[in-house]
Amino acid sequence: MLVIISALVINSFAEYSAEDCWSLGLNKANLLCSSCETLPTFDLGILKEHCNQCCHRDESGYAIKKYAQARLEVCTCKFGAYPQIQAFVKSDRPAKFPNLQIKYVRGLDPIIKLMDKDGNVQDVLAIDKWNTDSVEEFLKTHLISENEENADDYLETNMI
């Protein structure tokens, strides 16, 4: 009996990875827990438990999650279907983000993989409906800039 209760407690506090949430059709990067509470009103109560393990707690002082690096993945064969993504990739805009990689993957619709400093994927976002300005604004908001990266180094090198 104690083993069953322990397993239930551990499972209730478990949090799904970004890939787990993505496979369930949930976007961990943007999912607020308040959204999970509204699922039963749309006869989607069955998703509530999974939703709660993929969501971010709502806070009044919403903190924007920042990532050390990102990789935009797309197939060049899909550029015709996604001209806005092609325009972004072929422009000078990616050069503004030194921690952004462009990777061409055969047959893949455009996505952005957001990673920590060790290169571990934290979140995956489908960007097929985004325009060039949306991609740039998102990267400005969610990627750690060189200034933010070097802020700690500056303090360390100028210590007396």
UniProtKB/TrEMBL annotation:
Record carries keyword Endoplasmic reticulum: yes
KW Signal (keyword) present: yes
Major subcellular location class: endoplasmic reticulum
GO cellular component term of the entry, any: endoplasmic reticulum lumen
Keywords on record: Endoplasmic reticulum, Selenocysteine, Signal
Coiled coil: none
UniProt GO BP: 'de novo' post-translational protein folding
Record-linked Pfam families: Sep15_SelM
Signal peptide residue numbers: 1-18
Record GO terms (molecular function): oxidoreductase activity
Record localization: Endoplasmic reticulum lumen
Residue stretches making up the Selenoprotein F/M domain: 70-143
Similarity annotation: Belongs to the selenoprotein M/F family.
UniProt-recorded name of the protein: Selenoprotein F
Originating organism: Diploptera punctata
